[in-house]
Write a structure and sequence with these properties.
Blueprint: E1 3-10, E2 20-26, H1 54-67, E3 73-77, H2 85-98, E4 105-110, H3 118-121, E5 126-129, E6 151-157, H4 160-172, E7 180-184, H5 189-206, E8 209-211, H6 214-219
Parallel strand pairs: 2-3, 3-4, 4-5, 5-6, 6-7, 7-8
Antiparallel strand pairs: 1-2
Helix pairs in contact: 1-2
The structure holds iron/sulfur cluster (SF4).
Iron/sulfur cluster binds at residues 29, 31-33, 36, 38, 41, 78-80, 111, 132.
Length: 225
Amino acid sequence: MVISEIFHSLQGEGMMTGRPAVFVRLGMCNLQCTFCDTTYTWKKGETDYSDETNERVMESISKILDEYPPTNLIVWTGGEPMMQQRNIVAAIDYLNQRFPERNLEHEVETNGTIAAEPEFDGRIDRYNCSPKTVMSGNKRYDVKLLHFEKTTYKYVVGNEHDCAEALCEIERQKLPRMRCLFMVLGTTAKEMQERGPIIAEICKKEGITLCLRLQCILWGAVRGV
Ligand code: SF4
C-alpha cells in the first residue's frame, strides 16, 4: 500500500464535517489538478512519498484507534485511493476484526474516475466523490460512481464561472442536486470568507449544499489536520 500520511482529525469536508476520524491518505493519483493541495501524494521524489508495508500501516491506524476510543470513522483519502482498492479491502477486514466492538465506518474520498469493485463497494459506507471539471486542468470525464444512496458529489468552485460549469456537469450526468455540494476553492479562512458569500447565494438559488473546508478555517494550509 502506498501511503502518504495517517493522522487523527475532524472531517473537514462533506456531509460528515466536524466528525472525528482517522485519515489514511494514500499515495498516487491518476489526475493532476491545477489546484491540488496534496501534490505530495503523487509527485515522486519528495521525501514523504513512502511505500510502507501493510503491517506498519495497520499498526499506525490501530495505534490511533487505541488512543481515541470514541472515534469510529476511517476516511480513506488521497491522492486517489480507488487506485488501491485491493489493499484497502484487506486493511478494512483487518481493522474490523481487530476492533469488532467499534462498528467502524469507512468513507472514501475520490475523484470519481474509477469504478468500485464489488468486494470494495460492499465494505464502504460512503463515497465523498469530488468530480473535477475542466477548470481543474483535466479533461471532461464521466463519474464512475453512481451509487446515489451512499455517494455525494462535491465540486470545487471559486467563482460564478466555476459554479456554472459545475451545474452544467451536474445536469449532463443527471446527478441528484440534493447529493451535490459546492466546496469553496482555497486553503485559508480568508479565501473561504472572500469567496464563500457569492457561492452561498448560488447554492441557495440552485439547491446545492455549500461546503466550506473546516480544516482550512481552523488550521490553515498545513498538513496532517
Ligand atoms: S484528484 Fe485530488 S489528489 Fe488528485 S490531483 Fe486532483 S485534487 Fe489532487
